[in-house]
Amino acid sequence: MSSQDIPEENLPAEHAGQPGAVSVADEKDPFADPGLPPHEHRIQDIDEQAAKRSERTVALLFTLSMLATVGFIAAFVAIPHDRSIFVFPIGHVSALNFALGLTLGAALFCIGAGAVHWARTLMSDAEIADERHPIEASPEVREKVHADFKQGAKESVLGRRKLIRNTMFGALTLVPLSGVVLLRDLGPLPESKLRHTLWKNGTLLVNMNTNEPLRPSDVAVGSLTFAKPEGLEEHDEEFQTEIAKAALMIVRIQPDNIKDRRELEWSHEGIVAYSKICTHVGCPISLYEQQTHHVLCPCHQSTFDLSDGARVIFGPAGHALPQLRIGVSDEGYLQALGDFAEPVGPAFWERG
Amino acid sequence: MKKLSARRRHPLAAVVVLLFALAATGGLYAAFAPAGKAQADETAQSLTIEEGKRLYSVGCASCHGTGGQGSSDGPSLVGVGAAAVDFQVGTGRMPAATSQGAQVPKKKNIYTQAEIDQLAAYIASLGAGPEVPTKAQYGPEGADIAKGGDLFRTNCAQCHNFTGKGGALTKGKFAPNLEGVDPKHIYEAMQTGPQNMPSFPDTTLSEKNKKDIIAYLDAVNSSDTENPGGLSLGGLGPVSEGLFAWIFGLGALVAVAVWVAARTAKAKRS
Amino acid sequence: MSTASNQEARSRGKAPAGERVADWADGRLGIYSLAKANMRKIFPDHWSFMLGEVCLYSFIIIILTGVYLTLFFHPSMNEVEYHGSYVPLQGQLMSEAFSSTLHISFDVRGGLLVRQIHHWAALIFLAGMFVHMMRVFFTGAFRKPREINWLFGFLLFVLGMFTGFTGYSLPDDLLSGTGVRFMEGAILSVPIVGTYLSFFLFGGEFPGHDFVARFYSVHILLLPGIMLGLVVGHLILVFYHKHTQFAGPGKTEKNVVGMPLLPVYMAKAGGFFFLVFGVIAAIAAVAQINPIWAIGPYRADQVSTGAQPDWYMGFAEGLIRFMPGWEINLWGHTLVLGVFIPLVAFPLVLAAIAVYPFIESWITGDKSEHHILDRPRNAPTRTAFGVAWITIYMITLVGGGNDLWATHLHLSINAVTWFVRIFFFAGPVIAFLVTKRICLGLQRRDREKVLHGRETGIIKRLPHGEFIEVHEPLSQEQLHTLTAHHQYEPAEVGPTVDENGVERKVKGSEKLRAKLSDAYYGEDAQIPKPTVEEYKEITSGHGHH
């Protein structure tokens, strides 16, 4: 409605050469500032037809937005939430998500596009220069503030009454301690919790997949098996915390290929059980390459050699994976012969 | 030097030519062979093994030795079983062009299934090993997809990614993308542990477990898998999402900003 | 302002309703004096000035969608069995946090869309802040009086990173859980107090039953609360300082040239909000983000390859990936350098860019206000430093995705890691030197352009047969724009002898400053602007070419 009178108000080029902008050439600034260039008119400023076209475009965009919102509501009501459609080239997607997203996107985008088009073509585009004022206060103000402050400080007698000052600072320093103390019960103290797992002498190695105890004959050379301690079930309250320490990775290596003496000693006929928890920052590590016996961590690429005491051969881990000493129970099942000899998982200060 | 001469002795081209010739012979043989229906099983079996042995001596023996005993260029095949042959040859990994490189990639298979079966029969005759699974074993009927997902995340995702998109191993090796891989081959891979992949024998990952895993993969990593949110961006997670946000998200917004801030066309110089 | 006339108008009942409401509000809030200063406030137009708005708007979008998500999300780690609509997880054990996120994605109509808008907007928010920060850096907009606002912005970027991290960890999925485990490992590496910090954060051993609820309160309350305060402060300062502008005719340090807030900028900025929201909504319609159903619930003994954080944490991931595994065991204690050094390097990398403005202002010793922006080429050392910093950032980002680079470019992961190890140090040096060269080259070209005019591409044959290219002299506007930048003189160490002839001690910092200043503004570090004499000599001597 106001598109007709907008050009009128900015027809004269009075904004040209805002005074004060022009400077004089000097050593530092060899080419003087000629000042703001004169304002030039847009097509819409002089051609009423063009302005009308702009107005219609803006109105169309706003109307499209309204239609899109109607579409959004219609889609919300009409499309079942489990309907899947094929959209080329995206693939099989949720019809509801696709419809809602596009209608919402269109509704919003059209409002924005309309407003911007309106601003760009119909609102005045005359550039205006606004003066800046220095941020620093004038010397008088500065003096006044300093004087006021001194006056206030003097009246508080804080400088003279040292006892008040010192005890106040003391009190203010101490009071946040209550807050710090309150945080104490966020968690228990570490004690030796990180040093122990559920493994102990006689605990059977239970296959993660079948939930059955493992026999040596189950584990073939070149195979990879994951095990948990007997008695730990997925439904247990502390399952996550316990499996985070106790998870085992079991492989079988030809005894001749085991380079580390202790590893061989702690194995059973070439079956070795290593902690599945990386010694770097604790990712479950198990990218086992059966020909090289290397095991790679998917998180930070620490690489361990399972045929050589799981020592680190690449990457950021600082020490070998802990090995669990295993043997065979009377019933012929694989069993642990004790807990890990060292803490599993990431290193920490008290680890030693 | 040895490898060089070995390669010169059996360039792939010659193998391919020979195989075509063999395939033609086999085809002719099949066409003209007496269709004696009630032939004794044993005879058929030994014939198959014979055929397999012939194929073997042409395509495989130069690396794996004339009797499958292995050489410096290829491991022994005694006891690897029919499943390993079916996987390796069926996915085109064998015969390999060279034993060098980080790992032997998948490529176009040049044998017919009948020839693969013959090769497999021959290798199986060298020593007992896992057999080629039947459709009942790897088919999706009666599988528990959710259990398969859990098993996949425990046993497979560490190398093959959450939904089997593949991932990196050490020194240029990699775990391949599992999309579009024949369920039979997935089953055989678990069974036999090809190349650096560890095996997951039935004793530790039961037949049912394998079926579940295959059904899970079929649900989450096939061309028909639904990605409700839209483009899956390769299923690679935050890296591809981040690239998308930068290129298309921020890119689009900068383009819009350029439009918003640009000067409108002036009338004067028209 | 006169109350009398207002009352008069009111009593006559003739003033329009809007005006009456405004009068009412002014009597209580003093809005007129606020509006007087701000209603026609001038904002210069440049696309790069809208990058900050991208951030502001995506932040608002994140808050709006985030509030919606809290209505459905259960921040609990209680174990539940899933029985919702997503078949491949039927009957699986998972935390309530995970199952409620599945519920939002599959059973709440539009829930997936809002989740995706929230997450996409977060990625774009951080990307926008990064680019916005670089725009401010390379144009020198951080100089006095805007140093504090630079710090506000920097804090927003850092807090945004942690808000993002705590946010994407909430669904308790296998990917984010792996990230949380990484964080726990990093905390454990802190000497002396690491284990205690970890136990207090997780309420015991990892993962425990608490961290989702704790991250939730940090993610939706603590961090966004601080950020909201900083955003408001940031905006108030932008208004108070008035926007910077590029050099050009009519643009001085004492004015700001552009369009008024009402109506042009209000329409443009307001419209831009809808444009940003619209684009992000459309992205959320077509591109899937963080499909936790495909990732699966967190289990401490499960993992997937390709375990990366969202992009803004990627450089931290890179730092930790290329670090060698150093570990020192002494007197029964372990110093986990392999993790602790990256943990310390993480804030240091960020701090390097944050403190730069203060270092530069110390070197220049410039105490005046700057409102005219530098073109990056005219501050070669600053630009080179910025590019070097981006290079470090990008190299570590590559390191953070080393496995994907390896698989997609058919490289060895070890080779990629070694590349990152070497170029973490070599990359920024190379980038610094090359950038500085390029800047000086561009300065030389500007000088040529001023002295000889613009190359028109028109070849003319002179009467005696010589071919020349016609150069068109620049207009006064262009000449001014190209020479408006300020060039510093290198600072020198003051006289070593005071007025009484007593030798004074020259402080080390003074010498350092002189040295740095020479590196910044010495002969090899900037091309002198053409002088009027040079210009006159050339234009009068050779005529126009």
TrEMBL record, chain A:
Subunit structure of this chain's protein: The cytochrome bc1 complex is composed of a cytochrome b (QcrB), the Rieske iron-sulfur protein (QcrA) and a diheme cytochrome c (QcrC) subunit.
Keywords: 2Fe-2S, Cell membrane, Disulfide bond, Electron transport, Iron, Iron-sulfur, Membrane, Metal-binding, Oxidoreductase, Respiratory chain, Transmembrane, Transmembrane helix, Transport
Domain Rieske: 240-335
UniProt-annotated stretches for the region Disordered: 1-40
Topology in membrane: Multi-pass membrane protein
Superkingdom: Bacteria
Membrane-spanning intervals of the chain: 58-79, 99-119
Subcellular location: Cell membrane
Keyword hit for Protein biosynthesis: no
Stated role: Iron-sulfur subunit of the cytochrome bc1 complex, an essential component of the respiratory electron transport chain required for ATP synthesis. The bc1 complex catalyzes the oxidation of menaquinol and the reduction of cytochrome c in the respiratory chain. The bc1 complex operates through a Q-cycle mechanism that couples electron transfer to generation of the proton gradient that drives ATP synthesis.
Protein name: Cytochrome bc1 complex Rieske iron-sulfur subunit
Gene3D superfamilies: Rieske [2Fe-2S] iron-sulphur domain
Molecular function in Gene Ontology: 2 iron, 2 sulfur cluster binding; metal ion binding; monooxygenase activity; oxidoreductase activity, acting on paired donors, with incorporation or reduction of molecular oxygen
Main location group: membrane
Listed GO CC annotations: plasma membrane
Entry keyword Iron-sulfur: yes
Lineage: Bacteria, Bacillati, Actinomycetota, Actinomycetes, Kitasatosporales
Family under the similarity heading: Belongs to the Rieske iron-sulfur protein family.
From TrEMBL, chain B:
Maturation and modification: Binds 2 heme c groups covalently per subunit.
Pfam families hit by this protein: Cytochrom_C (PF00034), Cytochrome_CBB3 (PF13442)
GO cellular component, one term: plasma membrane
EC code: 7.1.1.8
Subcellular location: Cell membrane
MF-aspect GO terms: heme binding; iron ion binding; lyase activity; quinol-cytochrome-c reductase activity
Residues engaged in binding heme c 2: 156, 159-160
InterPro entries: bc1_cytC-su (IPR009152), Cyt_c-like_dom (IPR009056), Cyt_c-like_dom_sf (IPR036909), Cytochrome_c_Oxidase_Subunit (IPR050597)
SUPFAM superfamilies according to UniProt: Cytochrome c
Residues annotated to bind heme c 1: 60, 63-64
Signal sequence, renumbered to the chain: 1-30
Top class in the EC scheme: translocase
PROSITE patterns per record: CYTC
Entry keyword S-adenosyl-L-methionine: no
Main location: membrane
Catalyzed reaction equations: a quinol + 2 Fe(III)-[cytochrome c](out) = a quinone + 2 Fe(II)-[cytochrome c](out) + 2 H(+)(out)
Cytochrome c domain boundaries: 47-127, 143-264
Subunit-structure text: The cytochrome bc1 complex is composed of a cytochrome b (QcrB), the Rieske iron-sulfur protein (QcrA) and a diheme cytochrome c (QcrC) subunit.
Protein name, UniProt field: Cytochrome bc1 complex cytochrome c subunit
TrEMBL record, chain C:
Keywords tagged on the record: Cell membrane, Electron transport, Heme, Iron, Membrane, Metal-binding, Respiratory chain, Translocase, Transmembrane, Transmembrane helix, Transport
Keyword Membrane: yes
Listed GO biological process terms: respiratory electron transport chain
Transmembrane helix recorded as keyword: yes
Membrane topology: Multi-pass membrane protein
EC number: 7.1.1.8
Residue stretches making up the Cytochrome b/b6 N-terminal region profile domain: 21-247
Location within or outside the cell: Cell membrane
Cellular-component GO terms for this entry: plasma membrane
Cofactor(s), by name: heme
GO function terms (MF aspect): metal ion binding; oxidoreductase activity; quinol-cytochrome-c reductase activity
The organism's place on the tree of life at top rank: Bacteria
Catalytic activity: a quinol + 2 Fe(III)-[cytochrome c](out) = a quinone + 2 Fe(II)-[cytochrome c](out) + 2 H(+)(out)
EC class name: translocase
Transmembrane segments: 49-73, 117-138, 150-170, 182-203, 215-240, 269-290, 335-359, 379-398, 418-435
PANTHER family, per the entry: CYTOCHROME B
Designated name of the protein: Cytochrome bc1 complex cytochrome b subunit
Protein species of origin: Streptomyces shenzhenensis
